[in-house]
Amino acid sequence: MTVQSVTRPRYDLLEPGFRLPSRAFRVRRKDLVRYGGAARDYNPIHWDDRTATGFGLPGPIAQGMLTMGLALGYLVEWAGDPGAVVDFGGRFPRLVPVPDDDAGVELTVEASVAEKLEPPKVRVNLAVRLDGAKVLLMPKVIVALR
């Protein structure tokens, strides 16, 4: 689940509307278990079919913070600095059901520069999609380009 390298951005060359290359991430059940262990999130709705469907879910679902982490990791790699994302906020309008197969699901991250702020900061529009539907909306993401 690594992000492909892109050229490190320069504040002076960026303009609103600049689009980052979109990036796809494959998420499988084993990723949910690994993330759950690392995050100490042992909620069985993220790995057990019976529990998830018992709560009315279509099956185990990806953790929201896993989805957010993939998107933010993409931005960090783009900026070339792990401390570059200085502010963010988002919401999860849809669930990410993950089937128990080798294919899992594919999440697509899309981002564009929305506004240049006080140098070297930019506001970025960020969305994560599953089958074209937004599963993560980040209306406020501020990236400090060094």
UniProtKB/TrEMBL annotation:
MaoC-like domain: residues covered: 25-111
Transmembrane segments: none
Domain of life of the source: Bacteria
Family to which the UniProt record says this protein belongs: Belongs to the enoyl-CoA hydratase/isomerase family.
Protein name stated in the entry: MaoC/PaaZ C-terminal domain-containing protein
Organism: Microbispora hainanensis
Classification lineage: Bacteria, Bacillati, Actinomycetota, Actinomycetes, Streptosporangiales
